[in-house]
Amino acid sequence: MALTRVSLSCSARLLPSPLLQSLLRPFSSSTSPLRSSRRRSSPIAAAFSQASQSPHAVREGQVTEAPMPSSTRPWKPTCLYYTQGKCTMMNDAMHLEKFSHNLMMDLPVNALAADKVKPQKLDYLLILDLEGKVEILEFPVVMIDAQSMGFIDSFHRFVRPTVMNEQRITEYIEGKYGKFGVDRVWNDTAIPFKEVLQEFEDWIGNHNLWKKEQGGSLKSAAFVTCGNWDLKTKVPEQCKVSNIKLPTYFMEWINLKDIYLNFYSRRATGMTTMMRQLQMPTVGSHHLGIDDSKNIARVVQRMLADGAMMQITAKRQSATGDVKFLFKDRIM
């Protein structure tokens, strides 16, 4: 499948040119890596497990242990204003020193590891990890190439509830995001779920993964979630609250827990368990959606390098119908 490459390189992104800023899409941050060359290699586990074990302070909250992609480049938290398309400090040296504006830095690919990837039926994987129990508060997607494991693009939006009163929203956000120090950026940038989906459809359309006029499922791509809750339960619930029809591209997905169980023959109740079993340190703040999506993407990269096949594990029969689970051995 031909992918529309509309992203700018990291070095270009850091230039303060007004023209450059006008070219940046308002809903993504990305780079466009070339597919890694295929070479015979030795075992690759070290490419994903060796990392710095030093904790870093992030924003005003806490952060878990983070890897350093290179020995000379320390890990930095992602600028969440940038992921919302609203960073106004791209020419501020201190801001650029403190925050990352390139999600690819957390998802490096070792060419020797990429050599181990088996041919996949899907071309692209959209790692999704929603946040919000009452209503969806955060909609982050990390897109990677299923064949090369390379980071392609990201979509990230904070979501403003539609039926909660302002006092409840304030309590909700302070309780959820205050501990990470990102409640201000949430309040500055959150938009209703219906608008988020409109922007997301533009994003997948720009990547030739789906066409609104044709409907149907994604083209040679699939969502990857850590569990069935995100697409089996939460998105349909939110669509009802937002009074919109469940989009057709949400009808099937890959539950990474099921792939993990069938590939490694061991159970993992969640992302942190997977990373502990694979001896991989986590990046960023757990339960901050964009950071969790990056961590899940890193697990996917590792599994691809180990030889796993990413396959659809669940399909919804209709917008209001039951879900069919395709794996006999699965996490209940």
UniProtKB/TrEMBL annotation:
CDD domains hit by this protein: ERI-1_3'hExo_like (cd06133)
Chain intervals for the UniProt region annotation (Disordered): 49-72
A Pfam family hit: RNase_T
InterPro entries reported in the protein's UniProt record: 3-5_Exoribonuclease, ERI-1_3'hExo-like, Ribonucl_H, RNaseH-like_sf, RNaseH_sf
Superkingdom of the organism of origin: Eukaryota
GO molecular function annotations of the record: 3'-5'-RNA exonuclease activity; nucleic acid binding
Keywords: Exonuclease, Hydrolase, Nuclease
Protein name, as recorded: Exonuclease domain-containing protein
Keyword field contains Kinase: no
Organism field: Panicum hallii var. hallii
Positions of the Exonuclease domain: 124-309
